[in-house]
Structures are given as structure tokens and as C-alpha cells.
Amino acid sequence: MNHHRTIIEPFKIKTVEPLAMLSRADREVHLERAGYNLFSLPSEVVTFDFLTDSGTTAMSAAQWAAMLVADESYAGSRSFARLEAVVRQLTGCTHVIPTHQGRAAERLLCLALAKPGMKIPSNNHFDTTRANIEFVGAEAVDLVISEGRDPRSRHPFKGNIDLPKLDAFLTENKQSIPFGMITITNNTGGGQPVSLENIREVAKLYKRHGIIFIIDCCRFAENAYFIKLREPGQSNRSVRDIAQEIFSLSDGCYMSAKKDALVNIGGFIALRSTEWVEKLRALLILTEGFPTYGGLAARDLEAMAVGLEEVLDERYLEYRLAVTRYMAEGFNKLGIPTVQPPGGHAVYIDAKEFLPHIPTHQFPGQSLVCELYSAEGIRACEIGSVMFGSFTSNGDFRPSAMELVRLAFPRRVYTQSHFDYILEGMEEVVANKAKLKGLKLVYDPPFLRHFTAKFQPL
User: Fold this and answer.
1) Using one digit for the tens of pLDDT, what is the confidence trace for 165-219?
2) What DSSP string describes 358-384?
3) Cβ(14)–Cβ(61) under 8 Å?
């Protein structure tokens, strides 16, 4: 038994990369050039890149070694066979369709199955999921529990679906639902987990109503570890065992492997039934590549197969969740409110509470991400009215339910001293918060606004 209070990085570092250390004045120049949108910043002017945990992991020696023996055959690659075996063993699904990333999987599913006027329920759909659903004219419906919309609530599973609401929704809309979903963990709501009990009950409801159940499983291992830590009766089970039960409850899943498969690119769809497989593979060939590589090099398939095994190491998961908890507690001590309890992959600052003087139509979250970059060289992501706000037909602004700023931590990249350095610098952000001003949206793209929008300070 480990009696140490300190949870260390369960790895050693073999390759390093220098950090960009710019002055505040230089960063402000770059911010203006980027239209006050941190997605438009070149990475060489960013010190701490917390924009996303997607595809930003540091891969292991075992993953790099596997890439060297990849079989780059166009069709029937043994590297695909290796990935297929790992995914089948983990998920119990027979049919494995590789894609170049999660949104490609979403696109295939929506093109193949969704039609205008259809509705797809979930706890919360994230940005690319919602965009792909809306692109084909369908509607993404969020049915997360009320605690999941309250940053202060300490409910242990704030990613849960509201079961009575789901039952009523399925009863009313059964004929217009191509498939039902759940996302683990629930990124939009603060990286919050879903309980095993909730997944079991959701599966029963979908089955009773004759609806196919698909899991967005990009952070399945983090969710399984939260279940082990927080759910009664689960503490003595392995994360692998919990994950396998989760998958067994569904009809299939899709994954952005750039999260819990610990790779820089990749994804897949896995299904039990043959019903959709040929249609999905036909679309895959049209848009992604042959069904045994799906838009990826075989070396990416090899790295993915290794990553899906490594992510189930409970020492790694203990460290992963400890980082997020440590940073959330550090922010709270400085007076920075965060979504409670801390999630698995990111700290979510409650920008609405932190900057109450900035109204939602002036994007308090975007103002805060700009200040984090100017003050500390941190690139973070707004998850509020820039990402999810909308305008009515008469031009009125409809804000997001929450105004959050996400600091998503790349896996196995930053060390304890980096995080302590950031916490020291956040004292300046707190001291200057009353001086921060809102922003005006000057370019609003038709889809996924937050990627390419431009702003001007007010």
C-alpha cells in the first residue's frame, strides 16, 4: 500500500520541448493579431497550452515502438487487425470502423442515420457533435440532470441523464429518433462523470422504446475511474471491468481516440449489429479511406491499440484526476470559482460568477481566456455563449446556460512545477479582474463559431 501523500507522475520523461516565454506586451500584440480568438494564435507564442486535451498527449515509448513495426498496406493491414482485436476485447463490439478522429465518426453516423426533423437525445452534446447533427437538419437534445447545470452542486455524477425526462422524450418522439446517446465524461458540463447506475437505466429506457443506444466514449477510462472512486459497490472492481460493463450496455460506441486512447490522431466506431455497417463503410470509403485504415496511417492504428491498454493503468488515472483536483482546489483558494466537484480532464472556471460585471452578450468567458493568455501565456477555451450562444430570428441574443472557461490538461505533458507556477501567476488575474472588459463579436461563422470567430474589445 502506498502511504505517501504526494501523487507523482507515474512516468519518467525522455524527450523535452522548450516553452515559449514572452512578455505580456508581446502576448497582447499576438492576441490582437488573432482577433482575440485563441484558436488563431500560433503555438510558438503559447507557454501553457490548455486549449484542449484532444490530440495533445505525450505518447509513450511503447506507442512509439509500436509505430515502427506498423504495416502500411492499403488494405488488410495487420495493424488494423491489432487495433480491431483490442477494441473488440474492450467493447465487446464485433464491427470496428476506424476514422481519423471523433468528429469523422460523428459525421458518418449523422450522414448515414439522421434526417431533417429527427432528434437525438444525450446528456449534453459537445460542439462538434451538435454541429454534425444540425448540419443534416436534425436536432441535438440535451437532457442532463439539473445538478449538471449548476456549477456549485457537488453531486458526484453531474453527467447523468435525467431519466424521467428521457422517458418522456422517448415516448413523445420515438418515431423521429435515429439513435440515442450518452457522453462519458460529460465535457460540456465540466468534464463530469456518469454513474454506472445511470448508464444501466438509460440503456433500459432506450431498449424499452426500441431505440439504438450509442456511447460517445472519448473519456471512458476517466469515467470508469470516477465510478470506482465515487459509486457505492464499485471500489473493489478494476477500471477495465467497469469499462467493459459500460460498453456491454450499449449497441455501440464511437470515440475520439485523441483523448483516452492517448494518441495525437485517430478514432473509431464500434457496433454489435451488422445493420448499419455496410452503409457506414461505404461512406467511410467515400470520405475517409479504405475500411482497414479509415483516414489514418497504420502507425496511428498501432499507437491507438497500445494507448487503449495503457489508459486503463489505475496509477495513471489516479495521477490524472489528482492534477485536475489539485488545480481546482488551488484556484478556489485564490477566489476563482470552478465547477464542482472537479472533473477528469480539465478545470472549468465559472466566468459568470468570476466576472459578474460583464454581461453574457459581451462574452465574459472570452474576456477571461484573453486575460489568461495576456497575463500567463495560458491558452484556454471558452465554453459559454461564444460556443453555444445563439441569435433568434429577430436578432435577439440567447446566451448559453453557463459561461465557463475550460483549462484542459494534455495527458503526460506538464509537471507539478508547471502547475504551481500557474497558480502563483493566477494571483495577478484575480487582482485585475475588475478591470476586465467585454468583447464584441465582429465575425460570426455559420458553424462552430468558437474556432474562427473574431472579436474586438469594448
Assistant:
1) 999 999 999 999 999 999 999 988 888 999 999 999 999 999 999 999 999 999 9
2) S-GGG-HHHHHHHHHHHHH-EE-EEES
3) yes
Q: Which residue do the cell numbers 418522456 mark?
A: 168
Residue 257 and residue 307 in contact, taking contact as beta carbons nearer than 8 Å: yes
CA–CA separation, 183 and 262 (whole Å): 18
| C-alpha–C-alpha distance, residues 341 and 196, integer Å | 18
Using 50, 70 and 90 to split pLDDT, how confident is the model at 2? Answer: low
Q: What is the pLDDT of residue 5?
A: 78
Peptide bond into 47 cis (omega under 30): no
| The overall pTM is greater than 0.90 | yes
pLDDT at 1 (0 to 100): 52
Cα distance between residue 25 and residue 21, in whole Å: 12
Residue holding cell 505580456? 24
Q: DSSP readout, 66-118?
A: HHHT----SSS-HHHHHHHHHHHHHH--SEEEEESSHHHHHHHHHHHH--TT-
* pLDDT at 225 (0 to 100): 98
Burial string for 54-71 (b: 16+ CB within 10 Å, else e) reads bbbbbbbeebeebbeebb
Q: Could you please state the CATH topology (level 3) that the domain comprising 61-310 is classified under.
A: Aspartate Aminotransferase; domain 2 (3.40.640)
Quick: pLDDT tens for 382-397.
999 888 887 777 878 8
CB 386 within 8 A of CB 363: yes
Domain positions in the chain: 24-53+313-457, 61-310
3 has a pLDDT exceeding 80: no
- Burial string for 371-400 (b: 16+ CB within 10 Å, else e) reads bbbbbbbbbbbbbbbbbbbeeeeeeeeebb
Helices 314-333 and 220-230, axial angle in degrees (round to 10)? 80
Mean pLDDT of 149-157: 93
CATH 3.90.1150.10 assigned to 24-53+313-457: yes
Q: Which residue has the cell 497582447?
A: 28
- As a whole number of angstroms, the distance between CA 81 and CA 301 comes to 9
Within 8 A by CB and 6+ apart from 262, the residues are 57, 59, 60, 63, 303, 306, 307, 310, 311, 411, 412
Contact 363, 455 (CB under 8 A): yes
Distance (Å, whole) CA 232 – CA 226 = 11
pLDDT reported for residue 249: 98
